[in-house]
From TrEMBL:
<dbReference type="Pfam" id="PF03721">
    <property type="entry name" value="UDPG_MGDP_dh_N"/>
</dbReference>
<dbReference type="GO" id="GO:0005634">
    <property type="term" value="C:nucleus"/>
</dbReference>
<dbReference type="GO" id="GO:0051287">
    <property type="term" value="F:NAD binding"/>
</dbReference>
<dbReference type="InterPro" id="IPR014026">
    <property type="entry name" value="UDP-Glc/GDP-Man_DH_dimer"/>
</dbReference>
<feature type="binding site">
    <location>
        <position position="38"/>
    </location>
    <ligand>
        <name>NAD(+)</name>
    </ligand>
</feature>
<feature type="active site" description="Nucleophile">
    <location>
        <position position="272"/>
    </location>
</feature>
<feature type="binding site">
    <location>
        <position position="342"/>
    </location>
    <ligand>
        <name>NAD(+)</name>
    </ligand>
</feature>
<feature type="domain" description="UDP-glucose/GDP-mannose dehydrogenase C-terminal">
    <location>
        <begin position="328"/>
        <end position="454"/>
    </location>
</feature>
<feature type="binding site">
    <location>
        <position position="33"/>
    </location>
    <ligand>
        <name>NAD(+)</name>
    </ligand>
</feature>
<dbReference type="InterPro" id="IPR014027">
    <property type="entry name" value="UDP-Glc/GDP-Man_DH_C"/>
</dbReference>
<dbReference type="GO" id="GO:0003979">
    <property type="term" value="F:UDP-glucose 6-dehydrogenase activity"/>
</dbReference>
<comment type="similarity">
    <text>Belongs to the UDP-glucose/GDP-mannose dehydrogenase family.</text>
</comment>
<feature type="binding site">
    <location>
        <begin position="86"/>
        <end position="90"/>
    </location>
    <ligand>
        <name>NAD(+)</name>
    </ligand>
</feature>
<protein>
    <recommendedName>
        <fullName>UDP-glucose 6-dehydrogenase</fullName>
        <ecNumber>1.1.1.22</ecNumber>
    </recommendedName>
</protein>
<keyword id="KW-0520">NAD</keyword>
<dbReference type="Pfam" id="PF03720">
    <property type="entry name" value="UDPG_MGDP_dh_C"/>
</dbReference>
<dbReference type="GO" id="GO:0006065">
    <property type="term" value="P:UDP-glucuronate biosynthetic process"/>
</dbReference>
Length: 482
């Protein structure tokens, strides 16, 4: 029986290994982590992450060929294939601070593998890492290995949160990079055999190590670039009276461009786009390619611009001040169908409004009160470390100015304005007449996700701002400078 161990029971390690266990009953899978609470949650009825379809997959395999454990060293030693899916945050201090990937957790996992292994293993990079990381990992493993042979593979993950199970069941492609030696090719085949149990052969791509590592960064950069492109257009739409929904539909009809990933928004969030592009920028700079670095940096700059622009719209529309005004925030997760708040644009928007002394009432169907307070208190990039290394409690400032409530109507009661930060389906079907009746007047809605029907809301009496749509006369009179 092939034994797999995955180091890192997070958003990638947990779902990916659960699906491997489900699709490969003859493979034994152990997912290990240093965060005891996370492992306890994986072994309980309330999994540590919300992901549609995940509960069902875990229930089918847990205790049979899928195990969650804190016995990291034991399971690593027993495994034939070790996936490493640990955090790869952006460095906050030292060389490359604010851009380069911090490989502390990766390096400590590699050193541990070398220390505890008593038999040869395939070590798989599942985390997103800078191109050439495999070379560094190889050095760590071979220098400490006491003669044991390790083959390094790069097998980046392309799942998106909210659709992780679907993406894993039916991936566009699985990418495996390895050394071009006979041993490297043998290792590639061993991993390919695992995926081939449910993924059609023509979707399993094999490349050299560096192509696989770079393809992951490139894919995320291309995806984020599309969003920044459409978001840049959204600003021009507002200035000219064009409608970004119509523009992106027309543009996406060109089969060379395609219709997906062209939704204008308050900005992209999530744990990876920003981190991976910053990392790409740093790699370009280190390779003497400042023009290429500058090109990709612009994707991040437009994203920051879009979030600032949104805050400025809110403040400018409400007579240039939101001090002591109640603002309802609907949605805090970085996208719908996840409870994940890492780099959610809601954090920047809330911080911007808090900076202008607003009082916020926040509702999200999947994010806990504690998480929201923590997110608003954390410094940039601090969130991307194992849970036990993150600051424990929220600052008192956010607790005074922020309340977290249990539904959208409560959030909006007596509010001056309402901001939609996440495209949760339930926000499309709220009783906006009831909300309007209970709000201060004039009542404002700022839709950061283009989910509401602008005409209907204007008929009710709201002043509405919706990203990239023709502006209300009110907003034209109150211009916002980003
Ligand atoms: N979240 C996503 O949708 C995707 C993430 N990725 C990449 O996958 C990697 C992991 O991301 P997530 O799963 O989101 O992170 P996560 O933070 O949810 O999970 C990482 C886990 O690794 C554990 N860990 C850290 N160091 C450890 C060590 N030495 N030994 C044992 N456990 C250790 C942490 O406690 C944590 O539970 C990152 O490189 C990310 O860029 C790639 C594709 C999608
Ligand atoms: O490396 C990763 O972590 C993953 O990053 C993204 O997945 P994810 O961040 O989970 O979610 P996306 O669906 O890509 O959304 C990212 C952000 O972009 C926003 N977005 C997305 C699409 C769009 O048209 N407009 C838009 O604003 C979303 O609301 C969200 O805030 C990629 O889609 C995955 O392929 C990749 O594996």
């Amino acid at each position: 029986m092939v034994k797999i161990c995955c180091i890192g029971a997070g958003y990638v390690g947990g779902p990916t290994m659960a699906v491997i266990a489900l699709k490969c009953p003859s493979v034994q899978v152990a997912v290990v982590d240093i965060a005891q609470k996370r492992i306890e949650a994986w072994n309980s009825d309330k999994l540590p992450i919300y992901e549609p379809g995940l509960d069902d997959v875990v229930k089918q395999c847990r205790g049979k060929n899928l195990f969650f454990s804190t016995e990291v060293e034991k399971h690593v030693d027993e495994a034939d294939i070790v996936f490493v899916s640990v955090n790869t945050p952006t460095k906050t201090t030292g060389l490359g601070a604010g851009k380069a990937a911090d490989l502390t957790y990766w390096e400590s996992a590699a050193r541990m593998i070398a220390d505890v292994s008593k038999s040869s293993k395939i070590v798989v990079e599942k985390s997103t890492v800078p191109v050439k990381t495999a070379e560094a990992i190889e050095k760590i493993l071979t220098h400490n290995s006491k003669g044991i042979k390790f083959q390094i593979l790069s097998n980046p993950e392309f799942l998106a949160e909210g659709t992780a199970i679907q993406d894993l069941f039916n991936p566009d492609r699985v990418l495996i990079g390895g050394r071009e030696t006979p041993e490297g090719q043998k290792a590639i085949k061993a991993l390919k055999d695992v995926y081939a149990q449910w993924v059609p052969e023509d979707r399993i791509l094999t490349t050299n190590l560096w192509s696989a590592e770079l393809s992951k960064l490139a894919a995320n950069a291309f995806l984020a670039q599309r969003i920044s492109s459409v978001n840049a257009m959204s600003a021009l739409c507002e200035a000219t009276g064009a409608n970004v929904i119509e523009v992106s539909y027309a543009v996406g009809k060109d089969t060379r461009i395609g219709p997906k990933f062209l939704n204008a928004s308050v900005g992209f969030g999530g744990s990876c786009f920003q981190k991976d592009i910053l990392n790409l920028v740093y790699i370009c700079e280190c390779n003497g390619l400042p023009e290429v670095a500058e090109y990709w940096k612009q994707v991040i700059k437009i994203n920051d611009y879009q979030k600032n622009r949104f805050v400025n719209r809110v403040v400018a529309s409400m007579f240039n001040t939101v001090a002591k005004k109640k603002i309802a925030i609907l949605g805090f997760a970085f996208k719908k169908d996840t409870g994940d708040t890492r780099e959610t644009p809601a954090i920047d928007v809330c911080k911007g409004l808090l900076g202008d002394k607003a009082e916020l009432s926040i509702y999200d169907p999947q994010v806990t009160e504690d998480q929201i307070h923590k997110d608003l208190a954390l410094s940039k990039f601090d969130w991307d470390h194992p849970l036990h290394l993150q600051p424990m409690s929220a600052s008192s400032i956010t607790e005074k100015q922020v309340t977290v409530v249990g539904d959208a109507y409560e959030a909006a009661k007596d509010a001056h304005g309402l901001c939609i930060m996440t495209e949760w389906d339930e926000f499309k079907t709220l009783d906006y007449k009831k909300i309007f009746d209970n709000m201060q007047k004039p009542a404002f809605i700022f839709d950061g996700r283009n989910v509401v029907n602008v005409d209907q809301l204007r008929e009710i009496g709201f002043i509405v701002f919706s990203i990239g749509k023709p502006l209300d006369a009110w907003l034209k009179d109150m211009p916002a400078v980003a």
